[in-house]
């Protein structure tokens, strides 16, 4: 990272002064037209940076490390945990999958080890019941050179998995292959069984598929976009009741955030058998071979950049690069006849007009090309930074990949294409600064970036079925993707959004968050909304990033912070006052969360505006002290009492009340995970406290928010663990929240509900 900063500083000096900004094309052209010697030095710096990023690669050490993990996997897998009951059995098989996964990842491109690691993981996955993944691992083992004389073992396993998955074609193919091989008696017998299986499957096939396909079709179209002096915006064609799906948008381009290993093709985050690209240092994985195949056209140009670890340094420009890589084939049709970069640029800019005819059917590259950008208003240093990133990526594509080969036969020169590609990367980066979205998902609590949710053996009892009391360990909301959603980006900002967006892999599903009338504008919220922030807190990012001052109904009313302050109502501690009040924020204060500030910060103090007495909040420290010993039943009883006691000072759905609930619930569950046994009094009190917390969250963030659903996991665990009755209405309402989960999570929640909650209520 320092390296990048150093080089950029030196390059910045070479290009100064940068003239007035006109557009992305002119900005990059200026870089390309530096005078002779300067240009040479500028280019050398870029090449030096790319060269310096190469990392040593010790194949012998890699092989040893992979073998070490595989051996650990083997000894766990062959251990006799069977004798110790079902928990130990899950730990044995899933634990082995986890160790083999480490062997797969660290093997990198040492294929002798890689193929063995895949083969062994396949065995464990099959035993656990992950047949699809086991099937893929057999194919992986064969792909990476599994020893020929043993291949029949892998193929027969693949056939078994195909049979489990009811895939007749694949099964037939593997049987045909096995028939040509020399097999011993045992394998002959297995082959005969597989053939019988195939006949049986052929007898019963078809019918099932069509239902599934029907369900996937969900055409709901109610949007028009209008252009005019206000730019583009979105209105509802007809009345949309709350909770209706307004549109779905599948993103062509996203990148994982913070080095989290998620599938680079479908963005799924819960994996049990990640398949890495062996060539780029364990930085890219896929959930399946199919996803790996589909991502090839992009990854072939990114692989070396991942190997150099270049992409994590350049922030938003990585997604910008991906946009250019993804959209280039479509753009090429428009550009191939152009004779010069100037002509290409003007062709592209012509495409950006005519946005008034845009709808969801408009190709995504066109929608993206039309997104607004504020690079013209950016401070000089920021502009230069993005220019240098775009230049760096273009030089990378030229020096390290064959990306530019595709332009060789066309009329314009390669220099023209270098310029246009850099200009497009710069344009996309500028657009993403104001249009980029962040997709989130639930993940296991405290999961390391290189670990995988479905391999955490203490959580699972069988594939995608959690153990009793484990749902709360799936409650961490994490931003996972930076994602380009040009259609959603058409929505303007308001501090009270009309939509709620669910991220399901790389698909965004937009629901109406309120009742929307026909003809109403559909607003998104780009920052914290009016209930979660004071005007002064959210207006800063809106000005700095999005370059506007919000004039929405919430911001322009006389008392713009009233809805925020509702969650900060106190009763004065002074016994002779006891008046209700909300603190008056000091001029520089952007929030009222005094408990998050360091205790010695003077400005954190809260004063009663009636009697002027500073509030001491002694009860707060008392409460926090008790939490340390929540492993003891007695301390927990005191905590429950203390929690009720703060009602005297914290009024309504005070946000601190929810923070206290969280501070209490999490460690109690952690104690439970550690083996601490809770009784009915605990369950009763914890249920009541989680319910209080959920009410507050529903009031401030909405009952379908991720925040709500993540806290709901605690309630579901309590329901599953304790034997008390739930009303049918309560159950239905809670089950309805699952709509707002990504498909991969929803399945797990539904399994949990069916395994532990529903049957108990009968
Ligand atoms: Zn995938
Ligand atoms: Zn790669
Ligand atoms: Zn506003
Ligand atoms: Zn007072």
From TrEMBL:
Signal peptide feature range: none
Top-rank lineage group of the source organism: Eukaryota
Coiled coil: 177-204
Domain SET: 218-527
Molecular function, one GO term: histone deacetylase binding
Keyword Transferase: yes
InterPro entries: SET-MYND_domain_protein (IPR052097), SET_dom (IPR001214), SET_dom_sf (IPR046341), TPR-like_helical_dom_sf (IPR011990)
Alphabetically ordered keywords of this record: Coiled coil, Methyltransferase, S-adenosyl-L-methionine, Transferase
GO biological process: methylation
SUPFAM superfamilies given in the database record: HIT/MYND zinc finger-like, SET domain, TPR-like
GO cellular component terms given for this protein: cytoplasm; nucleus
Protein name (record): SET and MYND domain-containing protein 4
Biological source species: Drosophila madeirensis (Fruit fly)
């Amino acid at each position: 990272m320092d390296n990048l900063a150093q080089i950029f500083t030196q390059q910045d000096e070479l290009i100064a002064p940068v003239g007035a900004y006109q557009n992305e094309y002119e900005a990059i052209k200026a870089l390309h037209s530096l005078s002779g010697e300067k240009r040479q030095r500028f280019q050398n710096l870029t090449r030096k940076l790319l060269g310096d990023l190469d990392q040593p690669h010790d194949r012998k050490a890699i092989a040893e490390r992979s073998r070490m993990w595989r051996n650990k996997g083997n000894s766990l897998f062959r251990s006799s945990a069977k004798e110790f009951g079902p928990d130990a059995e899950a730990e044995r098989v899933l634990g082995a999958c986890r160790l083999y996964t480490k062997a797969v990842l660290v093997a990198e491109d040492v294929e002798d080890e890689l193929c063995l690691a895949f083969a062994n993981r396949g065995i464990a996955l099959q035993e656990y019941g992950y047949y699809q993944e086991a099937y893929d691992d057999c194919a992986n083992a064969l792909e990476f050179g599994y020893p020929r004389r043993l291949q029949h073992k892998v193929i027969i396993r693949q056939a078994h998995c195909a049979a489990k998955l009811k895939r007749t074609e694949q099964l037939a193919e593997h049987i045909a292959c096995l028939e040509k091989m020399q097999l011993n008696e045992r394998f002959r017998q297995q082959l005969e069984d597989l053939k019988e299986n195939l006949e049986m499957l052929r007898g019963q096939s078809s019918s099932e598929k069509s239902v599934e396909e029907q369900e996937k079709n969900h055409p709901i179209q109610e949007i028009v976009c209008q252009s005019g002096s206000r730019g583009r915006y979105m209105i509802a064609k007809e009345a949309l009741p709350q909770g209706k799906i307004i549109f779905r948008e599948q993103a062509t381009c996203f990148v994982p955030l913070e080095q989290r290993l998620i599938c680079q093709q479908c963005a799924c985050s819960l994996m049990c058998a990640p398949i890495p690209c062996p060539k780029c240092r364990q930085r890219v994985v896929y959930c399946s071979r199919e996803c790996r195949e589909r991502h090839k056209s992009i990854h072939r140009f990114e692989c070396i950049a991942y190997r150099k670890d270049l992409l994590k340094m350049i922030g938003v420009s990585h997604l910008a690069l991906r946009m250019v890589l993804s959209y280039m084939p479509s753009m090429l049709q428009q550009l191939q006849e152009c004779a010069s970069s100037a002509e290409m640029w003007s062709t592209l800019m012509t495409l950006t007009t005519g946005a008034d005819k845009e709808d969801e059917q408009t190709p995504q590259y066109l929608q993206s090309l039309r997104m607004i950008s504020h690079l013209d208003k950016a401070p000089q240093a920021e502009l230069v930074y993005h220019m240098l990133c775009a230049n760096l990526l273009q030089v990378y594509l030229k020096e390290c990949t064959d990306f530019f080969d595709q332009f060789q036969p066309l009329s314009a020169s390669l220099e023209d294409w270098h310029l246009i590609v850099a200009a497009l990367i710069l344009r996309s980066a500028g657009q993403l600064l104001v249009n980029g979205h962040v997709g989130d998902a639930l993940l296991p609590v405290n999961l390391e970036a290189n670990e995988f949710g479905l391999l955490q053996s203490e959580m699972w009892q069988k594939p995608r079925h959690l153990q009793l009391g484990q749902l709360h360990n799936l409650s961490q909301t994490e931003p996972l993707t930076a994602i380009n959603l040009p259609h959603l980006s058409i929505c303007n900002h308001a501090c009270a959004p009309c939509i709620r967006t669910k991220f399901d892999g790389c698909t965004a599903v937009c629901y109406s968050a309120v009742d929307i009338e026909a003809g109403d504008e559909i607003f998104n919220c780009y920052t914290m909304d009016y209930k979660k922030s004071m005007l002064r807190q959210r207006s800063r990012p809106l000005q700095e990033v999005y370059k506007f001052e919000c004039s929405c109904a919430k911001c322009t009313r006389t008392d713009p912070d009233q809805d925020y302050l509702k969650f900060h109502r106190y009763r004065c501690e002074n016994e002779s006052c006891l008046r209700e009040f909300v603190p008056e924020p000091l001029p520089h204060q952007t929030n009222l969360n005094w408990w998050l500030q360091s205790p010695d910060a003077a400005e954190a103090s809260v004063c009663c505006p009636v009697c002027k007495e500073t509030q001491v909040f002694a009860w707060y420290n008392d409460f926090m002290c008790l939490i340390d010993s929540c492993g003891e039943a007695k301390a927990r009883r005191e905590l429950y009492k203390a929690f009720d006691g703060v009602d005297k000072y914290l009024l309504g759905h005070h946000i601190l009340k929810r923070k206290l609930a969280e501070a209490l619930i999490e460690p109690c569950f952690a104690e439970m995970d550690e083996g601490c046994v809770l009784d009915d009094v605990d369950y009763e009190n914890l249920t009541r406290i989680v319910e209080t917390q959920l009410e507050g969250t529903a009031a401030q963030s909405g009952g379908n928010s991720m925040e709500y659903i993540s806290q709901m996991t605690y309630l579901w665990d309590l329901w599953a663990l304790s034997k008390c009755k739930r009303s049918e209405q309560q159950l239905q309402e809670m089950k309805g929240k699952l709509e707002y989960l990504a498909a991969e999570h929803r399945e797990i929640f539904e399994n949990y509900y069916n395994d532990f909650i529903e049957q108990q209520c009968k």
